[in-house]
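agent> fetching stored inputs for the L-tyrosinamide docking request
agent> found them:
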Amino acid sequence: MSMLPVMMSDKKDDDGDVGVVLETRQKTKKPPMYKVMILNDDYTPMEFVVHVLERFFGMTHAQAFELMLTVHKKGLAVVGVFSFEVAETKVTQVMDFAQRHQHPLQCTMEKE
Ligand code: TYC
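agent> prediction call returned; pasting tokens
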């Protein structure tokens, strides 16, 4: 029997794989993400909504104005997508701020 080392080039399929990987499913699940939405109403002033979008969602005035108009025309829009905790905080901040100013603005979240 030969005891010579077998060179890689002498074997078919020698890629260093020992052939025991039967499961390729990734077990590390990405955390669920949540859409935060604002809803249109007939009473909240446009400038208040623009201010909310700047203050709590880091938008520029132009971005905030454009999104506010989308909500005004379409009824609602997604403002951002966040982890559960961040989404919940945004919703609470917006709802508290609107209530303090006595505007009926609604902000909700929904699993993506
Ligand atoms: N529709 C409101 C108005 O005409 C403006 C508005 C926009 C209110 C967006 C809420 O999420 C909203 N004053």
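agent> quick read of the result: The mean pLDDT is 88.
agent> awaiting further instructions
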